[in-house]
Design a protein that fits this description.
single chain, 65 residues, mainly alpha, 2 helices
Length: 65
């Protein structure tokens, strides 16, 4: 049965609230880091994938400045 239906008071827990906030913050930070990675250097990652597909090496040249 529900606690509200039986008039049982459920104590407020700061530990539970802070844990939920910490998990939500970590999830948001991870999500934003992945979004930035996927959108910020998308052309470079596409070039690297293309190079792997055609057995080229994409990167800096040894003698380039």
């Amino acid at each position: 049965m529900l606690a509200a239906a039986n008039n049982v008071s459920v104590p407020f827990s700061w530990v539970v609230l802070l844990t939920l906030v910490a998990v939500a913050s970590a999830s948001l930070a991870t999500f934003l880091a992945l979004i930035v990675r996927w959108t910020d250097s998308r052309p470079r990652h596409a070039l690297i994938e293309w190079a792997k597909q055609y057995q080229f090496r994409a990167g800096h040249a040894a003698g380039a400045a």
